[in-house]
Amino acid sequence: MAGTVLEVSRLYEAALTGSVLTGSVLSKLDTGEVVTSELAYKYARILRDCVGYRQGYHSSPYWAPVERKHDALKVIAEMARQSAAHSGPAQLA
Fold it and tell me: Using CA atoms, how far apart are residues 75 and 33, in angstroms rounded to an integer?
C-alpha cells in the first residue's frame, strides 16, 4: 500500500510541477515528504505513515489496516482529482 501511495504522490508532484519535462523527478521518499507538506492536514497522516514505512519504521499511527486502506484510497483520489484539474483535458496530436 505504501509503495502505491508514494508512486501516486510522485506522479502527482510531476503533474503539478512539470518535473518530468526537466528530468528532475524525485524519489518516492522525497516526493512523499514534499507532498505531505502541500496537501491538507487530513491526508498528512497516511502520507507520513507511507514515508515512515519506506524509511523502515514498523509502527503506524493506524490501529487497523482497513482504516489505512480507506485513507490511502482517499488521498489517491484527491491527488488524481487535483492533477486532472491542473493539467486540463488531454491533448492528442
Answer: 14
Report how many domains make up the chain.
1
Asked if residue 90 has pLDDT above 60, the reply is no
Tell whether 89 is covered by a domain.
Answer: no
Residues of the domain holding 62: 2-84
CA distance 28 to 8: 9
Which of these, 6, 17, 1, lies nearest to 51 by C-alpha position?
Answer: 6
For 9, other C-beta atoms within 10 Å of its C-beta total 29
One-character DSSP codes across 1-25: -HHHHHHHHHHHHHHHH-HHHHT-P
pTM summary value:
0.73
Flag whether 91 is in a domain.
Answer: no
